[in-house]
Amino acid sequence: MKMAERSLCRGVSSSIILGAHALKNSRLVEDAKQKPSRIYSRPHDVLRDRRLNDIERLEILTSWEREARAEDQGDQLRLVVEARMEIEERMPTNSERPN
């Protein structure tokens, strides 16, 4: 955090700052789900975005897959499916999740 930002944040509850970050992040996710190619240049960029968790990445890529299928973008569709599969492979299956 830059010095100017720190001075602006003094006296402000950390939960308020974190809440604002979460709101900004949820806006990003919603915008990306509406039109992923407007936010990201390539599907792999979704994988590298540290602001997202795997569930959000999967939601964005699923939306991008629908978009690529609707617009008949074969090469783009292949890249999206590969990125989605990478996330699905690292996510626990239902049998691996604790009850």
Which value, in Å, is the CA radius of gyration? 17 Å
Number of domains: 1
Q: If you average the pLDDT, what whole number results?
A: 79
Strand content: under 5%
| Distance from first to last alpha carbon | 39 Å
Q: What is the number of strand segments?
A: 0
- What kind of oligomer do you see? single chain
Q: Could you characterize the architecture of this molecule?
A:
This protein is an all-alpha fold. The chain has one domain. The protein is 73% helix and 0% strand. The chain has 6 helices and no strands. It has helices at 3-9, 14-34, 36-39, 43-48, 54-70, 74-90. Helix 5 (54-70) runs antiparallel to helix 6. The radius of gyration is 17 Å and the shape is globular. It starts with a helix and ends in a 9-residue tail after the last helix. The model is unreliable at 3-9 and 12-20 (pLDDT under 50).
Record the SSE blueprint.
Layout: H1 3-9, H2 14-34, H3 36-39, H4 43-48, H5 54-70, H6 74-90
Helix pairs in contact: 2-5, 5-6
Descriptive terms for the model:
single chain, 99 residues, mainly alpha, globular, disordered N terminus
